[in-house]
Amino acid sequence: HVQLVASAGGLVQAGASLRLSCAASCRIFSTYVIGWFRQAPPEDREFVAAITWIGGNTYYTDSVKGRFTISRDNTKNTVYLQMNSPKPEDTAVYYCASGSLRDPTWYKNSGVYEYWGQGTQVTVSS
């Protein structure tokens, strides 16, 4: 069983920066990818970014490309989401999740992730 603990989000001004982290209790062999999702009610939870533990392959939703960077530190079992130049529309509860699927065509689908961290609120003020 993998436990994921996300760092606190917070309030940030548009154009500033914020880094979220997601620490895994362990990196079990079957855990292959870590993803970040967000949800701003009443919208559905949406994919933000994902990274594979092996190889560090990254994937982003179009709206954050060039602004957000996902990275990982294998020695710490931790994945980061660096949010640069955030916009008010990035305001949401952010979740990290882990999965074992190796087909990147599915990484945007929240249903393929097996373990989820607690959500953390990120609010971007204009």
Terminal Cα separation, in Å?
Answer: 40 Å
Largest sheet: 7 strands, mixed
Poorly predicted spans: none
**How are helices and strands ordered from N to C?**
EEEEEEEEEEE
Taken as a percent bin, the fraction of beta residues is over 45%
**Helix amount, in percent?**
under 10%
Q: How many distinct beta strands?
A: 11
Q: Give the overall silhouette.
A: globular
Quote the average pLDDT: 92
Rg result:
13 Å
What structural category do the secondary elements indicate? mainly beta
Number of helices: 0
Please characterize this protein's 3D structure.
The chain is mostly beta strands and about 130 residues long. Helix content is about 0%, strand content about 50%. The chain has strands at about 5, 10-15, 15-25, 35-40, 45-50, 60, 70-75, 80-85, 90-100, 115, 120-125. Strands 2, 4, 5, 6, 9, 10 and 11 form a seven-stranded mixed beta sheet that branches. A four-stranded antiparallel beta sheet has the order 1-3-8-7, with no helix packed on it. β4 (about 35-40) and β5 form a beta hairpin.
Provide a compact summary of the structure.
The chain is mostly beta strands and 126 residues long.
